[in-house]
Amino acid sequence: MLENDINYAKKIINGEYSEIIGEYTQFRRIFPFSNENIKTYFDLVDFEDKDVLSVLASSDQVFDMFLRGTKSIDTFDINPLCKYYFYLKKAAILALEKNDFIDFFTTCKNNAGYYELKKTINKEMFSEITKYLKGDYLIFWDEIYKILNEYNLLNFYYTCHSEVNELVNRTLYLDDTNYKLLKKSINSFDIKFIECNFKNLYYFLDKKYDIMYFSNIADYLISTYKTKNYELIIYRYKRDIEKIKTFLNYEGIILMHYLYNYHHKDQTINRAILNMSNTKCIKLMPNETYSPGVIIHQDIDEIY
User: Fold this and answer.
1) Partners of 27 in the beta sheet?
2) What is the maximal distance between C-alpha atoms in the chain?
3) Cα gap 114→109, rounded to integer Å
4) How do residues 65-85 score in pLDDT, each as one tens digit?
5) What 3-state DSSP class applies to 119?
6) What are φ and ψ of residue 255, in 5° steps?
């Protein structure tokens, strides 16, 4: 598996493929940081001592969840590279101070108001990070950074040019105090990773959860179900949600869908999701016109 993962990653870096699709997986570029306002989002929910199922993606979500006192975090993602990225980020938190951490993972820099692609990969920082990588994860990233450079960087990572303040405002662990807390405690943090797509997730679950977090998976249901027939998409999505809900504890919460604009709640698929019982859309920033929104499901009489 490791050798295949390295080979597929190298093919993506070299521009041979933009995606490599398997039965349950889809090798593709990695998001350096989350684009969601997870800091405000997660303030809606009590994570303390909870068992959580979460999309892995950039790993920002699970680092925030860990800081909020979760009991356990099981993750899943269609992209196998996310698992390796989690351990790279974990090692980087142990090795680097916050500003260096952000600098290492962002792909662009602000030059007098214009964003320019980084001209070099910081190999000195990477050398420090490798001191905290072990086993397959050390082998994987050592092979990747042998060929990663300024010319192929965006074949492997999505563009990320967020300012430090912007990242801090939407991500709990990038606050100065919280980053230091995470650095002290992260050695004890590990995850279970399930390599699969959403529609097959049910078959891989073997325990119950208090919270399930599905990011903006619902934006990709056309590719998930391989059809543009909205009635069929909605039927299959609701069917799969009902299956997955059998692994949700009583009064458990599903963070079903992140909307980058609250007003998108009226779009066809989002409206259908909201028509499901005990489901509600919340505007994250009530006083802002273009606020994100989140769709939350909870099987009790009152939800938020």
Assistant:
1) 20
2) 55
3) 8
4) 999 999 999 999 999 999 999
5) coil
6) -85, 90
